[in-house]
Structure formats: C-alpha cells, structure tokens
Amino acid sequence: MLTIHVADRVFGATGGHEPVDAVVVDGGLIAAVGTSGGVTAAYPGARVRRWPGLLLPGLLNADAAALLEAAYHPDPREADALGTEPLTGEDLAGLALDDVRRGASARRGLQRMLAHGTTAVAGPFTLPELRSAVARSGLRVRERAPGRDREPNAAGPLPTPSLDPLAARPLNAVLDGELTPGAPADFAVFDVPVDELPARALRVHGAGTCVATVLGGRLVYRAR
C-alpha cells in the first residue's frame, strides 16, 4: 500500500527550489521524495500520514550491544522495585537473570530504541537470546565502525552507552541510510523546531522527541 509521510521538513533530500516535506513509501521501499503538494498529486490514492517536526533517515545506535547485554530493562510491573531506567553494574549483577528474563529485557530495550528513532543497531551480540530478540525486531544490524565511537579527533573515554544515539555523537555519525527512491523505507520523525539547523535542534532536544519510526515501510513506533 502506498503511504505518504508528510512532516514540517524532510532532512537529507532535495526537491528543486521548494523545501521537501514528504516521503512516499511503497511496500518496504521509498518510492519518491518531494513536496507534499507534488507527491499527493502524483499519488492520488495513497494514504497520508502527517507528523510534526523533522523527518530524517533512521538512526544507528552504536551502543546497542552494551545496552542489551550489560543492562537490564525493567518490566513496567517492576517499576516500584526496580525503577524504569536500565540497570547496570552491581544493580544488574544482583538480579541473577536467566535466559528468559534476559530475552524479555532485550525486547523491551529494543522497543525503547525504536522510540528514539533507531532503525539500526551495532553488534556483535554474543548471547543467543539477544541475537534472537534483535532478529525478531527487524532492526538492521551493522558492524561496529571505529569512526562512530567518538567525535572526530576527540580524545578521552568513549561515550557512555545511551538509548539516545545523539547523546554523545554528531548527527552525521548516526544517520543510517539515505532518503532516496529505491532505498529501504527506514526513517524517523522528531518533533523539534525546523527553523533551526537540524544537527543543532536534535542535539539540543534529543532523540526522545521522536514521534514516529518507520522500519522497512512499517510504522513500528508512534508516540501517543
């Protein structure tokens, strides 16, 4: 089914003299990018989804292996006892997790990544239950790229693992894919000001502003 995703602005695509604000999805691929008026006229039978803010290629979470293998994502029913944030270190060791709880934790962690505009994760994942959870999620798996681990020419320790891919890395280091016809329809929309430079707006407001994540043409996350 053809779907047109319209946002206030699309980043990473050009449409001549007019600002691009729409992406057309056909199955799992991008069919076209352009202005909302132009693409709705070209695809009159398509379903239209409208989003506030900035639409851009999905993000790569380079910390995914650490966030899934060295952290526990509590079940909402455990919030009173464990809180809602990922548990690591001594807090994690005290849980004595079995394979079932690790797999459930990984599935919750992956859902939280989708809610931050993530469409790809960096491996490798060593535990079978985690590899299974990642495979079922549909997220793209990328090899860790050394150049993505820090700001260019930066020294010091590596960034602290975060559900927000933008927490310690520049936008150009975490974008995964391109918004071009024929490319996989992997993108996210963030409710940030579009009158600012995209890199600045996302750095200031963070990936927690995600309102929609599309992976392989499927809407896999939508903010309530």
Low-confidence stretches: 146-155
**Shape estimate:** elongated
- Examine the coordinates and then state which fold CATH places here, giving the name of the CATH topology of the largest domain: Urease, subunit C, domain 1
State the major sheet.
Answer: 5 strands, mixed
Distance between the termini: 24 Å
Average pLDDT number:
89
Level-2 CATH architecture of the largest domain: Roll
CATH-wise, what's the superfamily of the largest domain? Urease, subunit C, domain 1
- Main sheet: strand order: 2-6-10-11-12
Written overview of the protein:
By secondary structure, the protein is of the alpha/beta class. It folds into 2 domains: 2-58 and 177-222, Urease, subunit C, domain 1; 60-148, no CATH class. It is 27% helix and 23% strand. The chain has helices at residues 36-42, 64-69, 79-82, 89-93, 99-114, 128-137, 171-174, 198-205, and strands at residues 2-6, 9-10, 22-26, 29-34, 47-50, 54-57, 59-61, 118-122, 140-142, 187-190, 210-215, 218-222. The strands form 3 sheets. The chain has a 5-stranded mixed β-sheet with strand order 2-6-10-11-12, with no helix packed on it. Strand 8 (118-122), helix 6 (128-137) and strand 9 form a beta-alpha-beta unit. The radius of gyration is 18 Å and the shape is elongated. Mean pLDDT is 89; it is low at 146-155.
Question: What's the gist of this structure?
Answer:
The chain is α/β, with parallel strands linked by helices. Helices cover 27% and strands 23% of the residues. The chain is built from eight helices and twelve strands.
